[in-house]
Amino acid sequence: KLEKGFNAAKVREVAERVESHGIKTLWIFLVGGPGETRHTLEETLHFARWRLIRGDAVYLTVGLRIYPGTTLHRIAIAERAVQPDSTLLDPTFYFSAELEFGKTVRRLKQFASDHPRFMFSADSRSVVLPYLTRAASVLHLPRPHWQYMGLFQRVARAIE
After folding, report:
1. Considering the entire predicted model, what is its pTM?
2. E strand or H helix that includes residue 60
3. Residue 92 CB partners (closer than 8 Å, separation 6+)
4. Which of 50, 60, 71, 125 is the most interior residue, by most CB within 10 Å?
5. DSSP characters for 91-134?
C-alpha cells in the first residue's frame, strides 16, 4: 500500500547477503502502517527474532507520521483518519485500524523484554543515551555503537 518497492522475501534475501559478508545490521521497522494486522506484526517479530539471534539489532517505532502529499496522507484521507484540509503542522500519526494500539504495545514490550538489542523509538529519547554513546566514543569502542544497545539500555534503565 505504501509503494515501498520491496517485499518480505526481498528483505530476507538482503539480510542473508549482508550476513554472508559478516556485516551486523540495525533493522528499522515501522509498525501500524496501512494493512498491518496481528498476523503481519507477528511476521515482523519473527524476522526481528531471526536477526537478533544472529547479533543484529532492531529499532522499532509504533505508528507512522503523516506528511502532506504522501501516499500515506492519501490513504489516511481515504480512511478518514485525517481531514483533507488538515495542515498536519501538529504531528499526526497513522495506526492501522486492524490493530488495537494497547495490545500491540503490550506485545512489543513483551518481545522487547526477551531481546536486549531491541529498542523502541521512545527508548532513543532517554536522557542518558547521549552520554553513553559519547562514552563509547571516548573509550574508542568499535563502531557501530548500536551494537552495545543492550548494555546501554540496561544502564539507562538503572539510572532513570
Report:
1. 0.80
2. strand 57-62
3. 65, 66, 76, 82, 86
4. 60
5. --EE--TTS-HHHHHHHHHHHHHT-TTEEEGGGGG-SSHHHHHH
